[in-house]
TrEMBL record, chain A:
Full protein name: DUF3100 domain-containing protein
Alphabetical keyword list: Membrane, Transmembrane, Transmembrane helix
Transmembrane among keywords: yes
Chain ranges passing through the membrane: 12-33, 39-60, 72-95, 107-125, 161-184, 190-215, 222-246
Pfam families: DUF3100
Species name: Halobacillus kuroshimensis
TrEMBL record, chain B:
Transmembrane segments: 7-25, 31-51, 63-84, 90-111, 123-144
Name listed for the protein in its UniProt record: DUF340 domain-containing protein
Keyword vocabulary terms for this entry: Membrane, Transmembrane, Transmembrane helix
Species this protein is from: Halobacillus kuroshimensis
């Protein structure tokens, strides 16, 4: 263990490459373009994740650097959480005032079931769709599905698929859609700020970062609400899945597939 | 324990240097003006990480880090204005860029799994994220309007 950790900070190749990526991407800076009435923001962090991924396939990055990068992400997120903590502190009165919205919007995470489950069934996916759409598939949800259905079940494969997508492209995707939706729809940026806290540090950072870049004058409120919501999601996400998300998905899946099979039987009969 | 603290400190320092340089280039904050803020943030992290290690129970360290951060910056705590002023020099986006650079390098190893996913999974995954984001935003909007906050 000691050996491992000592090598970690001595991995100068990794840290130098990251420093180079940061200097390059921050020099490029933020760019934006409009799609219809919405704005798509290209932030340095989005280039950074894509350049990092690209470098993985060059000889510059070896398996070792890729492994060593993981604990650095954890510590980086810790630093980010500390920063969010000191933003929340001074805004505590506003956060308490917005408490009801903050608590109730956690139920919005069930929106994934209503939007994604019909799509999954329409695309012909079977019980995989239950694992896929019962939640945003972060670590606690993956654990829950594995525990309940097993690793080699269709539900398990489903939740892993979404988990992998979220790991690889979650931050990029959230960063792109959050700025876009906030400029496209009439909803208040603060509502989107609360929605940014979906229980993943990097996705929250990307989503709220885009909001800040789009609405710089609301920076502190956006970050305070996003941070508070993320902490809430982290602590309630699993229970939300156990008691509401998963049973609801199972029920809706039964209803939707039954209707589908009856209607196809009727068609055949007619 | 002492070894742990030393490792955390070293890695936070490496991360901090990278973030401060990004903070300078991307957000025009001269490095030495943001150094006190970064030191405060690293201090908060260390206290939180140590609490997570020392205190019983399975509460993750990040929860303690957040708690410490909130506590020391609450308006009714003496010295909080120093904490808030110094840390405001460290831009949030300057912290996220190095995190995602490390993340990009780390997720390369998941790439093989990713290409196996198939287009249907990718469509569903996007709907999952869109669903939770829009669902939460709609509820938040309704409640915030009802309360007259926005």
């Amino acid at each position: 263990m000691k050996q491992e950790l000592t090598n970690l900070w001595k991995d100068w190749r990794l840290h130098t490459i990251v420093l180079a990526i940061v200097l390059l991407t921050e020099t490029i800076g933020t760019h934006s373009f409009t799609v219809g009435p919405g704005v798509v923001l290209l932030l340095p962090m989005l280039y950074a994740i894509i350049i990092g991924l690209g470098l993985f396939f060059t000889p510059l990055i070896k398996e070792k650097q890729s492994k060593n990068a993981e604990p650095l992400i954890v510590l980086g997120v810790t630093l980010l959480i500390a920063k969010i903590g000191v933003i929340i502190g001074p805004s505590l009165p506003q956060i308490i005032e917005a408490g009801p919205a903050l608590l109730l919007q956690e139920f919005g995470n069930l929106g994934t079931i209503f939007i994604a489950l019909p799509v999954a069934i329409m695309l012909g996916l079977k019980r995989e769709s239950i694992g896929m759409t019962h939640s945003v598939a972060r670590e606690p949800n993956v654990g829950l599905i594995m525990d309940k259905y097993g690793f080699n079940s269709p539900e398990g494969r489903g939740v892993m698929a979404i988990y992998i997508f979220g790991t690889v492209f979650g931050a990029v995707f959230m960063g792109l859609i959050s700025g876009f939706l906030a400029t496209l729809t009439p909803l208040n940026p603060l509502s989107f700020a609360m929605a940014s806290g979906i229980g993943s540090g990097s996705m929250m950072a990307a989503a709220s970062g885009s909001l800040v870049a789009a609405f710089p004058q609301m920076e502190n409120d956006i970050l305070a609400f996003a941070g508070a919501s993320n902490l809430l999601s982290l602590s309630t996400g699993l229970y939300m899945s156990i008691f509401i998300g998963l049973p609801l998905t199972e029920k809706l899946y039964d209803i939707m597939t039954r209707r589908k099979s009856t209607s196809s039987r009727v068609e055949k009969g007619a | 324990m002492l070894k742990n603290i030393q490792e955390w400190l070293l890695m936070l320092a490496i991360f901090g240097v990278t973030a401060l340089l990004g903070n300078w280039i991307g957000y025009d904050v001269i490095v030495w003006e943001a150094v006190p803020g970064m030191l405060v943030l690293i201090g908060i992290c260390l206290v939180g990480l140590i609490l997570g290690k020392v205190l019983p129970g399975s509460i993750p360290s990040v929860a303690y880090v957040a708690l410490v951060g909130v506590l020391v910056s609450m308006p009714w705590i003496p010295g909080s204005s120093f904490i808030v002023e110094t840390t405001s020099e460290v831009n949030l986006l300057a912290l996220t860029t190095p995190i995602l650079a490390y993340a990009g390098i780390a997720i390369g190893r998941s790439w093989a799994d990713f290409v196996k996913l198939g287009w249907r999974s990718i469509v569903v995954a996007m709907c999952v994220m869109l669903g939770t984001y829009i669902g939460s935003a709609l509820i938040a909007e309704v409640i915030l309007r009802f309360q007259g906050i926005i």
